[in-house]
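User: I'm designing a mutation panel for Phosphotransferase IIA-like nitrogen-regulatory protein PtsN and want to avoid disrupting the core. Could you give me a predicted structure to guide residue selection? Please restate the sequence first so the numbering is unambiguous.

Assistant: Good idea. Sequence first, for numbering, then the predicted structure tokens:
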Amino acid sequence: MQLTQVLSKDCTRRVDACQSKKRVLEIISELAANRLGVSEKEIFDSLFNREKLGSTGIGQGIAIPHGRVENDLPPTAVFIRCDQPIGYDAIDKQPVDLLFALIVPGEENKQYLQILAAAAEKLHNKQICKSLRQAESDEQIYQIITS
């Protein structure tokens, strides 16, 4: 699974003023809603409810929030790089600055897991994470995460 199949340039952002987990989930919801033409609230509620089950912060400054929407829409990803790490209740108790979010249709399972695995594999690479943290533009971030 290529990340370019689910992540677009307009859903890849460097965010400089993000203070909380809630706010970053709102930004993700806004970007995904604009891309998919669905309600920001529906996406936010899905992501937020998933976080209630347990943090998607996987450690080393990385989170992979994900949620499902009832519409029959294509899987869509959002990538956010926060200039200032935020508290996220990650498993290592460290703040998060790299977030790969995934929104999928309610019944999608196989492709959902493949995309999550591809994102996790990419973000497990320390050199890629270093490059993402040093990138100066949305375009650079997109090129690094999708290369």
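For picking mutation sites, this is relevant: The longest helix spans residues 21-36. The longest strand covers residues 76-86.
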